[in-house]
Design brief:
The complex is a heterodimer of chains A (129) and B (135). Chain A is 18% helix and 41% strand. Chain A has 129 residues and is of the alpha+beta class. Chain A has a single domain (4-127), classed as Thiol Ester Dehydrase, Chain A (Roll), CATH 3.10.129.10. In chain A, strands 1, 2, 3, 4, 5 and 6 form a six-stranded antiparallel β-sheet that branches. The longest helix of chain A has 12 residues, at 45-56. In chain A, 36% of the residues are buried. Chain B is built from three helices and six strands; from the N terminus they run E-H-H-H-E-E-E-E-E. Chain B has helices at 20-30, 40-45, 55-70; strands spanning 10-18, 76-83, 95-107, 110-119, 122-123, 125-133. In chain B, a hairpin with a 2-residue loop joins strand 4 (110-119) and strand 5 (122-123). The longest helix of chain B has 16 residues, at 55-70. Classes of the chains: A alpha+beta (129), B alpha+beta (135). At the A-B interface, helix 1, helix 2 and strand 3 of A face helix 1, helix 3 and strand 2 of B. Strand 3 of chain A pairs antiparallel with strand 2 of chain B, so a sheet runs across the interface.
Chain lengths: 129, 135
C-alpha cells in the first residue's frame, strides 16, 4: 500500500548515471540493432525502472515490487542518449489509485544531461492484488 | 529518392521470433531480472500460464520495426504502448511477435504511426503509437 502523501512528490536520483558503450551494445544486440552510435529509443527504461524501484520500495512509500506488472509505458525523446553521457534522473509519483484491489501507480522519469532534458517517460505500474 | 508518405500508408509486416534465450539476453541487457521472465516454476506460482516476455522487450522490438522504416534510432520522438496481454514463451519454443504499422497523421516532418503487435494471434499491445521524423 502506497503512502498517500507520497503522490506528487519528486525524487532526485542520488548520483548521475554514466552510460557505457557496452550497455548500449548489449541492449541493441537483443533487438538486432547494428547502429550503436546512439541508444535505442527504449534503452533508458533500464535507468528509469531501477530508479522507480529504489524510490517506491522505500519503507515510507511502501510498494510491494514482487507483485508488480508493467501496465503501460510512454517515452518522449528530445535528444538521443549516447555512450559517455552522464544522466541525472528525477522521478515523480503522479498518481495512485486502487481498482479491484490492484494498486495502480503512475510515475514519470525525467533524464537530464547537464541542464538539457533528454528523455521524459511515463510508466504505469500495477501491483496485483 | 523517397515517395511522399500519406495517411493510411501501411508499413510492411514483420514477424520476430522470441525464445527463452532472448528473454535471458533482454533481462541481462535491461537489468530486469524478474523471475516471471525466466523461471517457469515461479511464473506458474504467481498465476501466469508460463514464462512471459518482458513487455519492454516487446516494445523494444516494435521500436526496432519502426526505426528500420523511419530511418534509424534517432528518428523516434515519442513512443508509447499499453501491455494488454503477455507474450507467452514456453521452453524450447520460438513464438511469434507479428508487427504492423499504419501512418495515421502527417504534419510537417512529423509522422504518427499506429502499431499493432500480436503473438499467437492475440493482440499484446494496446494504444501503441509512435511519432517519428522520417529520414
Amino acid at each position: 500500500m502506497l503512502a498517500p502523501d507520497s503522490v506528487g512528490r519528486t525524487f532526485a536520483g542520488a548520483d548521475s548515471i554514466s552510460i557505457s558503450q557496452s550497455e548500449i551494445d548489449a541492449f541493441a544486440a537483443v533487438i538486432g540493432e547494428t547502429d550503436t552510435s546512439i541508444a535505442p529509443p527504449t534503452f533508458t527504461i533500464r535507468i528509469s525502472l531501477d530508479q522507480f524501484q529504489n524510490i517506491l520500495t522505500q519503507p515510507e512509500i511502501g510498494l510491494d515490487w514482487s507483485r508488480l506488472v508493467h501496465g503501460d509505458q510512454k517515452f518522449e525523446i528530445f535528444a538521443p542518449v549516447k555512450a559517455g553521457d552522464s544522466l541525472s534522473c528525477s522521478a515523480t509519483i503522479e498518481s495512485y489509485r486502487i481498482a479491484a484491489g490492484n494498486e495502480i501507480v503512475s510515475v514519470r522519469s525525467d533524464l537530464h544531461r547537464g541542464a538539457e532534458l533528454v528523455v521524459s517517460s511515463w510508466s504505469t505500474l500495477v501491483v496485483r492484488a | 529518392m523517397t515517395s511522399k508518405i500519406e495517411v493510411g500508408f501501411a508499413i510492411p509486416e514483420r514477424v520476430v521470433l522470441i525464445d527463452r534465450q532472448m528473454l535471458k539476453a533482454y533481462a541481462d541487457a535491461s537489468g530486469d531480472q524478474n523471475p516471471i521472465h525466466q523461471n517457469e516454476e515461479f511464473a506458474l506460482s504467481v498465476g501466469l500460464p508460463n514464462v512471459i516476455a518482458h513487455g519492454m522487450l516487446t516494445m523494444a522490438l516494435v521500436g526496432k520495426y519502426v526505426t528500420d522504416w523511419s530511418g534509424g534510432t534517432a528518428s523516434v520522438k515519442e513512443f508509447g504502448a499499453r501491455f494488454i496481454k503477455p507474450v507467452i514463451v514456453p521452453a524450447g519454443e520460438k513464438v511469434d511477435l507479428t508487427i504492423n504499422g499504419t501512418v495515421t497523421e502527417v504534419s510537417g516532418d512529423q509522422i504518427k504511426v499506429d502499431l499493432v503487435a500480436t503473438s499467437a494471434g492475440v493482440k499484446v499491445l494496446g494504444m501503441a503509437k509512435a511519432v517519428v521524423i522520417k529520414k
